[in-house]
């Protein structure tokens, strides 16, 4: 029997503003779509937090026994600089500045994105479609929306008619905004604007002569509006109605609001049952922004090469730190908080390492089954990873008490404790034991030891004790540490 039959998972649904019992459309299967990155620059840490949050969701659903189809797109066209759909295409602009092809920009930053998420131990999604790979489908859905009377053409561009849509539907259902307020708060349309109303958004934009990313369509040579790709790719791979849609909090409006409107207009169905939004990351109490310098890239975090933090932190520590907060809360990155997470992480891993050698007894003085259900209760409560982690630290206490012979466990309970801890730490939270090289402190210690051995080897060689000298070199090599002799002395690589 799959685990999900015994566990009642509740998800905070942004659409209702409440935690709701999760019921997938098809028993045992989950369709999940998460808005992926616009690949025009290195992925920033705030985005990583969003994707780590949804990796936790993906992992827990799988752990519960669901077959999950997780679709996360790559935006490689159509995302303009401003939310008001003005300015250059972000990718085309980068291509112009770097004097390379737009697809080179896309390739470069897609690779960066994958590398960084791999370091954070995120599982890859089941399908990772691109906007440019779905232009045909986007044109088809625009035709449908026009046919249903919810979009109009103007000067080669096509716009979604928000006022018309709102007559029979609710534009603002997700963000809680009222169309009347939106209208009252917007400025007049500029004379050159083709839109009927400022709230209308582009489904297709006619390309200006200088716009290099362009495709033919029935209306003009142009490009799709940014919101459309997610409607097209989610419905293509998950159906007109699917279970979970996620993304960063900043995408709730207008992006996700527009997705609902487009889906509803094209099919007459509400596309998504559970909307989930991950909160943002701040740095030293302030919003991260390149312009103010209050910013740090993941690779700068891992290498320690930055002006914000005093030392480097491994991806596992950073992931553990992020999971110590609920995905719906704002999380602040600081030296102090990361340092505390690092200590906690090692305490947890040290306890895990003790488990195989723990003594067993005829009776248990601790109720392991109850402890295990508390872990599930935490995750069933809208993926509450900080409470799960607090329960794992309860297990650390149990392990240490058994080690010190102040508590007892039967062989069966010990097995259950071990299996549960392993699945929660490694499968659900997706943490990895930090290797010596990954952990900065340990690698510093290792380097000191190697330096000492190099010194001893030099001494042995000076005394013509070549046997000892070679033994040091060979043993180090056998452990992957290569010595290189030169006129300047001996160096090593790990
Ligand atoms: Zn999206």
Automatic annotation (TrEMBL):
Keywords: Ligase. It comes from Mesonia oceanica. It comes from the Bacteria. This is Cysteine--tRNA ligase. Its EC number is 6.1.1.16.
């Amino acid at each position: 029997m799959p685990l999900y039959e015994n566990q009642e998972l509740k998800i905070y649904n942004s659409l209702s503003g409440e935690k709701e019992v999760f019921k997938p459309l098809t028993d045992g299967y989950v369709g999940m779509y998460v808005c992926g990155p616009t690949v025009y620059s290195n992925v920033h840490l705030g985005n990583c937090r969003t994707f780590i949050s949804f990796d936790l969701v993906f992992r827990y659903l799988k752990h519960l026994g669901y077959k999950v189809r997780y679709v996360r797109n790559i935006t490689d066209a159509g995302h303009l600089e401003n939310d008001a759909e003005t300015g250059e295409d972000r990718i085309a602009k980068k291509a112009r500045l770097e004097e390379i092809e737009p697809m080179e920009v896309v390739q470069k930053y897609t690779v960066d994105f994958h590398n960084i998420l791999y370091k954070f131990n995120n599982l890859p999604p089941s399908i990772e479609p691109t906007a440019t790979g779905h232009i045909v489908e986007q044109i088809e859905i625009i035709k449908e929306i026009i046919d249903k009377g919810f979009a109009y053409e103007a000067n080669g561009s096509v716009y979604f008619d928000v006022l018309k849509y709102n007559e029979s539907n609710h534009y603002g259902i997700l963000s809680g905004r009222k169309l009347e307020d939106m209208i009252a708060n917007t400025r007049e349309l500029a004379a050159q604007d083709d839109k009927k109303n400022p709230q209308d958004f582009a489904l297709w934009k006619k390309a200006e002569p200088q716009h290099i990313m362009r495709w033919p369509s029935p209306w003009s040579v142009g490009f799709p509006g940014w919101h459309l790709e997610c409607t097209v790719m989610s419905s293509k791979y998950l159906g007109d109605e699917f279970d979970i849609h996620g993304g960063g909090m900043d995408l709730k409006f207008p992006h996700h609001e527009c997705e609902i409107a487009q889906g509803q207009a094209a099919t007459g169905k509400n596309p998504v049952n559970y909307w989930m939004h991950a909160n943002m990351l701040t740095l030293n109490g302030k919003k991260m922004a390149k312009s103010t310098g209050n910013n740090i890239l993941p690779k700068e975090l891992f290498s320690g090469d930055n002006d914000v933090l005093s030392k480097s932190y491994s991806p596992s520590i950073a992931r553990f730190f992020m999971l110590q907060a609920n995905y719906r809360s704002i999380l602040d990155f600081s030296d102090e908080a990361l340092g505390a997470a690092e200590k906690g992480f090692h305490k947890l891993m040290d306890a895990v390492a003790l488990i195989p050698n723990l003594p067993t007894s005829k009776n248990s003085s601790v109720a392991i089954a109850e402890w295990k259900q508390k872990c599930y209760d935490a995750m069933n409560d809208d993926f509450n990873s900080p409470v799960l982690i607090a329960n794992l630290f309860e297990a650390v206490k149990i392990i240490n008490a058994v080690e010190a012979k102040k508590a007892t466990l039967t062989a069966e309970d010990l097995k259950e404790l071990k299996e549960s801890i392993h699945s929660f730490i490694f499968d659900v939270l997706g943490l990895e034991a930090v290797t010596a090289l990954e952990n900065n402190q340990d690698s510093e210690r290792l380097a000191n030891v190697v330096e000492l051995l190099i010194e001893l080897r030099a001494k042995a060689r000076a005394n013509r004790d070549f046997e000892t000298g070679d033994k040091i070199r060979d043993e180090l090599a056998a452990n992957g540490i290569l010595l290189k002799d030169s006129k300047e002395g001996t160096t090593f690589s790990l």
